[in-house]
Design brief:
Distance between the termini: 26 Å
Radius of gyration: 24 Å
Structural class: mainly alpha
Largest sheet: none
Number of domains: 3
Shape: elongated
Order of helices and strands: HHHHHHHHHH
Number of helices: 10
Strand content: under 5%
Length: about 210
């Protein structure tokens, strides 16, 4: 069975073969069938190859492996294994509250090319910085804007554990404020320990047991 990556490669290879054939045998375009073949070779199949390639890349870009393949993100990946329940991403990752293979994308669904026009522009800026600018040091990377509770509520909204948690019942309007984004889930004394990469040197790490 062809995977997405193999299909993209197969379509690209077919496009090249047909394109070379039409270039080497231009006389085939003298007949109707030949012109149809030329159209397939020079327009339709290349368009399919581009679509397959972009689609495959978009899916791969959602994987945790892809996000952490960048050297700048390595410590953020390590923070997922901190053996401390107070570390929000670590607790979610280690307890399968988010799919591990898509952990980054699950909580950052509007990141760069997955967000709106402004996010995509920021993504292009990241590419520029990576190759032509000064890459921020670990610990200096900041969100452009406060983390949106929407990303938390994708999973937690309506969940019994979320609704009945004693900390969420401190005041009658706490959940209402959180649900409307008036009160950040990452407010002080709430879930305020996220990717604290500056303290990794002193942290202990969970060792995953492989089946």
């Amino acid at each position: 069975m062809l995977t997405g990556a193999n299909m993209a490669v197969a379509v690209a290879a077919l496009s090249i073969v047909l394109g070379v054939f039409v270039v080497l045998r231009p006389d085939v375009t003298r007949v109707r069938e030949g012109r149809m073949l030329a159209f397939l070779a020079l327009f339709l199949v290349p368009s399919m190859a581009v679509w397959a390639g972009v689609s495959q890349h978009m899916e791969r870009a959602k994987t945790t492996e892809f996000c952490l393949s960048c050297h700048t993100m390595e410590d953020y990946g390590r923070s997922l294994y901190v053996d401390d329940r107070g570390y929000l991403p670590a607790a979610h990752f280690q307890n399968n509250r988010v799919p591990r293979e898509r952990a980054c994308y699950t909580c950052h669904t509007d990141y760069t090319m997955f967000g709106g026009l402004k996010d995509k522009w920021r993504g292009l800026h990241h590419v520029y910085v990576q190759y032509l600018g000064t890459v921020p040091r670990t610990g200096e990377i900041k969100l452009y804007q406060p983390f949106n509770n929407r990303e938390c509520l994708h999973c937690h909204a309506g969940a019994r554990s979320y609704m009945e948690a004693s900390a969420h019942q401190k005041s009658p309007d706490m959940l209402e404020k959180a649900n409307s984004n008036q009160l950040s889930c990452m407010s002080s004394r709430c879930h305020d320990t996220v990717h604290d990469v500056t303290t990794l040197a002193d942290a202990t790490f969970w060792k995953e047991v492989k089946n």
